[in-house]
Amino acid sequence: MGPRSVRVGAARRLHKAAERREQGRFLVEGAQAVGAAVAAGALLEVFVGAAAAARHEALLRTAGVPVRVVTEAAAAALSETVTPQGLVGVATLPRHRLADLVAPRLVAVCVAANDPGNAGTVIRSADAAGADAVVFTGSGVDPFGGKCVRSSAGSHFHLPVIVETEPVETIARLRAQGCRIVATSGGAARDIDAAMAAGDLDGPTAWLFGNEAHGLDAAVAAAADATLRVPVYGQAESLNLAVASALCLYASARARRTAGTEGTGGGGRRW
Amino acid sequence: MGPRSVRVGAARRLHKAAERREQGRFLVEGAQAVGAAVAAGALLEVFVGAAAAARHEALLRTAGVPVRVVTEAAAAALSETVTPQGLVGVATLPRHRLADLVAPRLVAVCVAANDPGNAGTVIRSADAAGADAVVFTGSGVDPFGGKCVRSSAGSHFHLPVIVETEPVETIARLRAQGCRIVATSGGAARDIDAAMAAGDLDGPTAWLFGNEAHGLDAAVAAAADATLRVPVYGQAESLNLAVASALCLYASARARRTAGTEGTGGGGRRW
Fold first, then answer.
1. First-to-last CA distance in chain B?
2. How far apart are CA A4 and CA B237, in angstroms?
3. What range(s) does the RNA 2-O ribose methyltransferase substrate binding domain occupy (chains A, B) (predicted)?
4. What's the start-to-end Cα distance of chain A, in Å?
5. Is the separation of the CB atoms in B24 and B144 below 8 Å?
6. What DSSP element (H or E) covers B266?
7. How close does chain B come to A5, measured CA to CA in Å?
8. Rounded CA gap, B181 and B130, in Å?
9. CB-hemisphere CA count at 13 Å for A250?
10. Element (H, E) at B28
């Protein structure tokens, strides 16, 4: 199957966000992401070059979906990386909504995220920290784009990744679902360690992370219940967004475990 | 000044690690990194396109080094990014050695780091966590390469970034300087929270971080005093290397402050 075949053409169009929404599908590249899609029952079909087919024979045999062997040119056309792995799957685009969350304990909210690599790393860290969902709101990257999916290392299939248009509405809904809303800003007076020590992170928390260049809009930050910073002990002006968000999410995970409140909410819940 | 001028040619050669070592200089791209180089007294000269010269007039006026106005083609040739900022400085390559460290309290050691973006983010996080140095050892990325320098957001000028060839010798030297050596591995039995609760992170600590694909070599891990993991509460197999290293370094920073031992060692020391 070559790069101009109808099937390859339909899959290639999934490089565009509008087409992903239209088709209800997205691309997952590489063995780790394809394996996670298989495990989640979300894989629909997979395109593979001859070399990659030999390398991933066991994965493809057990994938339970149509395997399309394609030319190296087609595999390269489907890939968005400089060094294609020769293995690209098509997965069902999840349509999770905030309204579907039941008593969330820990939620990461990326507002106007502008770096797909950081966005995917936030999803991966949120998964590792035991979060219940990651929400993308405000105009920013589509979390189902290629670079974001690669950066999450399969975590797109482990927890709900939710796209909501309006940041302030998102905040109101998460608050109605029982979350305390904590904005993050390098300029905040209080830091996450002080908040943890005071017990302020023991309950259900939704963290708001702004974009790397501009932080959070004033209107969004004002809608939060509190604003915290990650302490900086050296001379760095700030932290990388993905790093800062992981430190916040892990502060919540640690607080929750120390407070002995884990397991009473939605921890470990699967969709 | 065009892309074929002698000065631009000499600076362009600094894209190569061997040439950086030979000339004792490295490139810093963008206003943030150039500003940090100025503040550290490390900037030697700066190349700027006409548009960027207008945008960064104040910075250039106070830089105290020769400003070379270049054509956009020359600015693009000096840049390693897809969208050049039109501002590239040449800075003195620091020649820090492990032997120069005095009673280090917190050191990050990247062993065979293979991703320059992650490596730069580790430097930035180590700076923020108040570390005394970042060491790169084993064959891996040169921390003075363009992508690594951009990712550190100026932190290359805030703490010593040290290149040492031999991981096991590096470990022996850091131990001789009073550090407990802690390797990191997703497969470790004990996690950083348990170690922190037991007081194991209160003293001087050197953390060993392996490369993202393969972790630490067995011989390197065996040379450590302990091996710890970052706890994973969800379904993620692992964390991004830059994220995991920040969680470890901040666990040390928090332990040290909770134990009240900060300020007794090298905290805040400048080179």
1. 35
2. 36
3. 27-97
4. 35
5. no
6. none
7. 31
8. 17
9. 26
10. strand B25-29
B186 lies within 8 A of chain A by CB: no
Tokens of A6: 């109808």
- Structural domains of chain A in order of their starting residue, each with its CATH number: 6-92 (3.30.1330.30), 98-258 (3.40.1280.10)
Shortest CA distance from B40: residue in chain A: A235
- Nearest-CA distance A64 → chain B (Å): 22
Residue indicated by tokens 């996690």: B191
The answer to whether residues B122 and B242 touch, using CB atoms and an 8 Å cutoff, is yes
Per-residue tokens: B99: 């032997």
pLDDT tens, chain B, 271 aa long: 888 899 999 999 999 999 999 999 999 999 999 999 999 999 999 999 999 999 999 999 999 999 999 999 999 999 988 788 899 999 999 999 999 999 999 999 999 999 999 999 999 999 999 999 999 999 899 999 999 999 999 999 999 999 999 999 999 999 999 999 999 999 999 999 999 999 999 999 999 999 988 899 999 999 999 999 999 999 999 999 999 999 999 999 999 888 776 544 444 433 3
A250 touches chain B (CB under 8 A): yes
The 3-state DSSP class for residue B143 equals: coil
Percent of chain A scored above 90 by pLDDT? Answer: 88
pLDDT at res. B262? 57
Type of residue at B201? L
CA gap A45, A32 in Å, rounded: 15
Q: Which residues of A touch B246 (CB under 8 A)?
A: 239, 243, 246-247
Residues in chain A, how many?
A: 271
Q: CB–CB of B130 and A253 under 8 A?
A: no
* Separation of alpha carbons A149 and A147, rounded Å: 5
B130 touches chain A (CB under 8 A): yes
Nearest to B184 by CA among B214, B148, B141, B161: B214
Sheet holding A43-48, edge to edge: A25-29, A87-92, A43-48, A67-69
B230 inside 8 A of chain A by CB: yes
Shortest CA gap B36–chain A (Å): 10
